[in-house]
């Protein structure tokens, strides 16, 4: 964010790793739809997209101003929404035409990690590949993801997307894709979205917003779980230390006297 020309005009620019893939799936069209003339034809140097915001044209105080600020804060979210919106539209076309599935869309948004999106006639599949740097992260991640699977058994959330977890080997949807690695440090999380999750525009927007944050959500809770376990371990060690300190016997010191009246200390 900068004010290169004058103080009343803010230039908000974004550089994102997978921009070329996003542009291929319609990110420019989505940003033009959301921000209109705010999108500069020529982005700032070393950036992929820039918004030019004239503070004198910002809506006055009230709901309109809050909505405008919120939309600006969702710049990255709106850019990443492009492949999901494309997949939702493709699903409707495949459903009406009777075709089986569309093309696989790939977003390499982090080092060694990617999001894969593919539409089919009755669903949209979203696959996250994530890297667990430590063995404990892999264990916590597996336990945490199992909770997603078990949670769908509850009557209140049976309409939630189906969640599948593959450790090391990629799911069938990605088999044969060049560049995939098979390692104990890599896990694949699959979300199966059905039409009820994106047919309604408001529900579709909420689905896109939530699923984008899944990777950060997962690793955040892994770190929180580790921090909680460490705090419990420190507390337990402290309690054991108190027990050991109470178990120490005091050295008894007594004073005795000889027959001649001299003092003799014995321990």
What does this structure look like?
- By secondary structure, the protein is an alpha+beta fold.
- It folds into two domains: 9-79, 2-Layer Sandwich (Yope Regulator, Chain: A), CATH 3.30.1460; 96-224, 2-Layer Sandwich (Yope Regulator, Chain: A), CATH 3.30.1460.20.
- Helix content is 42%, strand content 21%.
- The chain is built from eight helices and nine strands.
- It has helices at residues 19-24, 27-35, 63-73, 75-80, 82-97, 135-151, 201-212, 214-247; strands spanning 9-14, 49-54, 105-110, 113-119, 124-131, 162-167, 186-193, 254-257, 263-266.
- The strands form three sheets. It has a five-stranded antiparallel sheet.
- Helix 6 packs across helix 8 (214-247).
- The longest helix has 34 residues, at 214-247.
Keywords:
267 residues, alpha+beta, Yope Regulator, Chain: A, 2 domains, five-stranded antiparallel β-sheet, 9 strands
């Amino acid at each position: 964010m900068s004010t290169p020309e004058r103080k009343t005009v803010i230039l908000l620019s974004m550089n994102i790793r997978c921009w070329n893939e996003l542009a291929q799936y319609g990110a420019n069209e989505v940003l033009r739809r959301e921000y209109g003339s705010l999108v500069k034809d020529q982005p700032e140097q070393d950036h992929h997209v820039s918004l030019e915001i004239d503070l004198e044209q910002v809506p006055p105080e009230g709901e309109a101003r809050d909505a405008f600020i919120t939309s600006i804060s969702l710049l990255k979210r709106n850019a990443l929404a492009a492949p999901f919106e494309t997949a939702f539209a493709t699903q409707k076309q495949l459903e009406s035409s009777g075709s089986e599935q569309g093309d696989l869309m790939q977003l390499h948004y982090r080092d060694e990690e990617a999001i894969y999106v593919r539409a089919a006639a009755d669903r949209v599949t979203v696959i996250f590949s994530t890297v667990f740097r430590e063995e404990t992260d892999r264990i916590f991640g597996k336990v945490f993801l199992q909770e997603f699977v078990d949670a769908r058994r509850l009557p209140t959330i049976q309409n939630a997307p189906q969640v599948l977890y593959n450790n090391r080997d990629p799911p069938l949807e990605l088999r044969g894709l060049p560049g995939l690695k098979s390692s104990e440090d890599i896990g694949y999380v699959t979300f199966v979205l059905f039409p009820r999750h994106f047919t309604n525009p408001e529900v579709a927007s909420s689905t896109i917003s939530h699923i984008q944050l899944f990777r950060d959500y997962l690793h955040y809770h892994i770190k929180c779980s580790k921090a909680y376990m460490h705090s419990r371990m420190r507390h337990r060690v402290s309690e054991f230390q108190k027990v050991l300190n109470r178990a120490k016997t005091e050295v008894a010191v007594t004073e005795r006297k000889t027959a001649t009246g001299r003092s003799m200390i014995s321990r």
